Amino acid sequence: MFAVALCLEVIEHVLDDRKLMRDVAACLKPGGRLILTTPYLLNRAITGPDNGPWSTVGDGGHVRRGYTEMMLRELCAQANLLPEAISFGSGFISQEVTLIQRMFARIHPLVGWAVALPFRALQVVDRPVTRLLGWPYFSIRLEAYKPRFRVDAG
Fold this sequence. Notes:
Helix 3 (92-105) runs antiparallel to helix 4. The chain is built from five helices and four strands; from the N terminus they run E-H-E-H-E-H-H-H-E. Helix 1 links the parallel strand 1 (2-8) and strand 2. Helix content is 33%, strand content 22%. The two termini are 30 Å apart. A four-stranded mixed beta sheet has the order 1-2-4-3. It has 154 residues and is an alpha+beta fold. 23% of the residues are buried.
């Protein structure tokens, strides 16, 4: 049993996401926490592959575009986890830096990282710029916990 489970950019690669959430919940101690990140369903694709096609077999590729807040809440309910916070990340600037990194990575992965690295400092203004532009975030984050006490209706 674990006090914390991290599921970072994984669930969108798993065919049976309900089973994944139930299995994670089963591994948590009562009061244990799940921290999960995944693409936001309503994001704007950074590059073509972000629009699919999605894999129909468990080959490690994306099997879905992403999730909304309601989808994550539903998965939590089915796994008997209680969502505590849902937030968003990877705004406009982060997405543009990712695009730069992906473009130059075609030359060589290290070139992509070297060119993009100086732009990472701009992330300090990512959230306000994203809000100003009304740009959709690329990732959604869930923090949930396994209840310590059983609550019976009635």
